[in-house]
Structure formats: structure tokens, C-alpha cells
Design a protein that fits this description.
Layout lengths: L2 H17 L3 E6 L2 E6 L2 H15 L6 E4 L4 E4 L2 E3 L3 E5 H4 L13 E5 L5 H14 L4 E6 L4 E9 L2 E9 L3 E6 L2 E6 L14
Length: 190
């Protein structure tokens, strides 16, 4: 699939998003997937973005919910991704997965399988160095690193309330999870 085809398809996906506010649209395993989002989803993204923005070195910036085409069957829109600032400045509708240093996803009820299985496999296959899953339903963050063809070799699960530390190729980052929102049905973190 060429970028012009991706731009056309993403344009079509954008129309779905406009028709169904409150839903995030991606292509996962060849299927159009619409995931409802709740306020704590956006709040988690904002808090993680703010924490990382203070620590990311010059020359790096963020995209959020922007198309990242992997192949004909997968076009993801990471909740947050750290890529070179020069690429962000181009203001494109789609970016290559090879640009991503850190990918962040926030779990929603309909994205559990995609975030914990499909994206783990695809992000690792494309060599994305670090993948973080913030889960407001389980009250934890899963960090993954050392990608390979069969997934990530490194993996930790950190309960909310403890700091998440990522030692990336562009620097070390810490996200304080103590104030991240959780779903009201999630047991309190002690």
C-alpha cells in the first residue's frame, strides 16, 4: 500500500470518526475497528504526554491518534508516539512505524485484545524499541522493550502508584502513575 492510498483510506476513516464522535477508528487485521473512549482515556494520554514532554530531548516530539500504516491489514493510530520532531513538523496524515521510539496505548474496553496481543506483535515486528500499555481497568502499566520477530523480550507490569521508568535510546523517562485515572470499577491502588 502506498502513502497516497494510506492517506485516502485514512481520509475515509476520518469520516467515520466525524460521524461517530466518541469513537476512535483504526484498521486492525484488515478490519475497521471503532473503539469507544471515555474521559479517563484522554486524561491518561494527557498526563503521560505532559510527563514525557518535560523529559524528551530536543529533536523529538509527539503524535497522537495519527495514522501509522504497518501493512495492508494494519493501520494503527497510537494514543501517543515519540518520533523525530522534524517529522512531526511535516504535519502529515500518516507516519512510518520505523520513526517511533516509544509507542503508548491506553486500554479501552474494546481494545484489550488489540493493545495486549495484536499491537504487541506488530510493534515488535517493526522494531519499535519501547511499547507502553496504560490500563485504567487493571490499574497498571505494561512496559515492553527489546523487540523481535516473536514479540518483545523484555516486559514488566507496574501497578499504578509506582513510577514507570523507560530507558530508551534517546534518554531515560519516568512517568508517575500515582495520579493516573482508573475506571470506577477498578480496586484502589494501595
Amino acid at each position: 500500500m502506498t502513502i497516497s492510498e494510506i492517506d485516502r483510506l485514512h481520509s475515509q476513516l476520518s469520516r467515520f470518526e466525524d460521524q461517530f464522535p466518541g469513537y476512535r477508528t483504526e484498521i486492525v487485521e484488515g478490519n475497521i475497528v471503532m473503539s469507544p473512549v471515555k474521559p479517563h482515556h484522554g486524561e491518561t494520554i494527557r498526563r503521560v504526554w505532559n510527563a514525557l514532554e518535560e523529559q524528551v530531548p530536543e529533536g523529538w516530539a509527539f503524535i497522537s491518534d495519527v495514522a501509522v500504516p504497518f501493512d495492508d491489514d494494519n493501520e494503527f493510530c497510537p494514543d501517543l508516539a515519540v518520533i523525530p520532531a522534524a517529522e512531526v513538523a511535516k504535519n502529515l496524515g500518516a507516519y512510518a512505524p520505523e520513526l517511533i521510539e516509544v509507542a503508548v496505548e491506553v486500554v479501552s474496553p474494546s481494545s484489550v485484545r488489540n493493545d495486549y496481543e495484536v499491537k504487541v506483535r506488530e510493534y515488535a515486528r517493526r522494531g519499535i524499541p519501547h511499547y507502553l500499555i496504560f490500563d485504567p481497568y487493571r490499574g497498571h502499566c505494561v512496559t515492553m522493550w527489546n523487540p523481535g520477530p516473536d514479540g518483545y523480550l523484555g516486559r514488566d507490569s507496574i501497578p499504578y502508584g509506582k513510577p514507570v521508568v523507560v530507558a530508551s535510546g534517546i534518554g531515560s523517562f519516568t512517568v508517575d502513575t500515582a495520579k493516573l485515572p482508573t475506571d470506577p470499577g477498578t480496586p484502589p491502588v494501595s
